[in-house]
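S.,

Sequence below, as promised.
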Amino acid sequence: MLTISNEEMERGMKIVAERMKLVIEASAGASVAAALFKTEEIIKIWPEVRRIGVILCGGNTELVNFP
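The prediction came back faster than expected:
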C-alpha cells in the first residue's frame, strides 16, 4: 500500500487533463500520482515490477470542484 497526499492526487488529475485531455476522478488521480511520484518506493517494495498499469475513471467528477 502507498500513501498519496491530496496535492499529489490533484497533480495526477491535472497531468492527465493537460496531457491526455481527459477528466478523471480523484481516485484515478491517486493511481496516476503513485505511478509517477512514488516510483522509487514501488521498486523498493516490489523489485520485480517492470510495468505499471493505471485504470482511469471519471464518473464521480464534478467540473465545479476540479482542481
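The chain is about 50% helix and 0% strand.

Coffee later?
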